[in-house]
Design brief:
The radius of gyration is 15 Å and the shape is extended. It has one domain. It is built from two helices and two strands; from the N terminus they run ααββ. It has helices at residues 2-10, 19-23; strands at residues 27-29, 36-38. It is α+β, with helices and mostly antiparallel strands. The N and C termini lie far apart (31 Å). This is Flavin reductase like domain-containing protein.
């Protein structure tokens, strides 16, 4: 399962639209947040955004924390 999890993390879905299907993993709905989890993986880290702060108007850099 580590190879599949690694693949999901390093491959862009913009370049490989079916990347999840290529892993053979099954997607399920999280019971805690509005996000998918993978049934075969023993661990999923689920987070919620509690605050968004814009620090700059510069659109050339990532200005969100």
């Amino acid at each position: 399962m580590m190879a599949e999890a690694d693949y999901l993390g390093i491959v862009s879905e913009n370049r490989v639209p079916d990347k999840v299907a290529r892993t053979g993993l099954h997607v399920a709905k999280s019971e805690f947040v509005d996000a998918p989890v993978f049934s075969e993986l023993p661990l999923a880290l689920e987070c919620k955004v509690s605050k968004v702060t814009k620090v700059s108007e510069d659109y050339h850099t990532d200005t969100w924390i």
